[in-house]
Amino acid sequence: xxxxxxxxxxxxxxxxxxxxxxxxxxKNLAKVVDILVCGGLSGTMxxxxxxxxxxxxxxxxxxxxxxxxxxxxxxxxxxxTGLGLARNVLVVxxxxxxxxxxxxxxxxxxxxxxxxxxxxxxxxxxxxxxxVIRVKNVEQAIKEVKNILKIN
Length: 152
Description:
- The longest helix has 14 residues, at 16-29.
- This protein has one domain (5-147): Rossmann fold (3-Layer(aba) Sandwich), CATH 3.40.50.450.
- The protein is globular and about 40 Å long.
- 45% of the residues are buried.
- The chain is of the alpha/beta class.
- Helix 1 (16-29) runs parallel beside helix 2 and helix 1 packs parallel to helix 5.
- The protein starts with a strand and ends with a helix.
- It has a seven-stranded parallel sheet with strand order 4-3-2-1-5-6-7, with helices on both faces.
- The protein has five helices and seven strands, in the order E-H-E-H-E-E-H-E-H-E-E-H.
């Protein structure tokens, strides 16, 4: 049986509120999907990996450079690409659903890739763009992920 994979995107840096949100999202996602994919670096990516891993999930970081040691300490599998920001395509295409947390232009590009490729994007306090599923809290995000993946 194929594993359920979610990508979580967000900023390289985040405040304490977004960090707590990302950790909670990670912990709750680990209850419904098998693998979390992200950009593998700091900020939101580190916080969501920390939460997902703490709940027993497997994390994959698709990093922009070649040095595996640049990944955050909560990434189980590091995929060094040397692609810079172009690796954002891989982060999005690896999953069946993308959850967007607050971020800037890089996050926006990943949302655009999701929309272009027809991969559902759930926005949790992130960009408000037509075609994106907006939610206000972690519980709503998990509900949308479960609906998209047809998980009871």
